[in-house]
Design a protein that fits this description.
Elements lengths: L4 H4 L4 H7 L6 E2 L5 E2 L7 H12 L1 H10 L1 H16 L2 H8 L4 H25 L9 H30 L5 H20 L2
Antiparallel strand pairs: 1-2
Helix pairs in contact: 3-4, 3-7, 4-5, 5-7, 8-9
Length: about 190
């Protein structure tokens, strides 16, 4: 028995199929399928740290602890790459039971973003990294149509009970195109 079709679409098929069960996978806010998004729970964790230790301690950690500073860098970049408007199109494909997860993800995203901006002392994500900020802003007009095409192809492929190999091939092409676009912009 081979990997379920969506597992076969991942960038690292061997690792995904061997190290994760099918239930560990869901649609991420940026529209990709894979392990739980890195920021899920991060905002809640920061909230707990702020409540327990205070803003001065957590701010000191962000400024003086290289590991924590780099972790914030990574989370900030992931948040900046995430397009919740595009994610809404993917959310529409989910059944009602899974659609409830989208609201949780959006709330956690907003909480995480608010805490990262507060700790960074900036008004917008990646204000401290204008090169990456601009790169993401410039790439979206090219990647967004591929996302919308992918949503349409997923809807149509599912309507064939996942039997139409032509649609499946086109779907795989959109995944490759989106992945290349995302990779090219960091």
């Amino acid at each position: 028995m081979g990997a379920p079709p969506l597992l076969a679409l991942s960038g690292n098929q061997t690792q995904t199929a061997q190290s994760q069960s099918r239930t560990d996978l869901f649609a991420n806010p940026d529209g990709t399928f894979g392990p739980c998004h890195e920021t899920n729970g991060f905002g809640s964790g920061l909230q707990a740290a702020l409540e327990r230790h205070g803003a001065d301690v957590v701010g000191h950690m962000a400024a003086q602890w290289p590991f924590f500073g780099h972790l914030l860098d990574d989370v900030e970049a992931m948040l900046a790459r995430t397009d919740l408007e595009i994610a809404g199109h993917y959310d529409a494909l989910a059944g009602a039971a899974l659609r409830t997860q989208a609201e949780f993800i959006r709330k956690e995203f907003a909480l995480t973003e608010a805490h990262v901006l507060r700790l960074r002392g900036t008004a917008a994500l990646l204000d401290g990294n204008p090169t990456l900020q601009r790169s993401i802003k410039l790439r979206n007009p090219y990647i967004d149509p591929m996302h919308l095409m992918q949503v349409d192809l997923l809807r149509r492929w599912r309507a064939t009970q996942r039997q139409d190999q032509g649609l499946f091939g086109a779907l795989r092409a959109t995944i490759g195109g989106i992945a290349q676009g995302l990779e090219a912009t960091g």
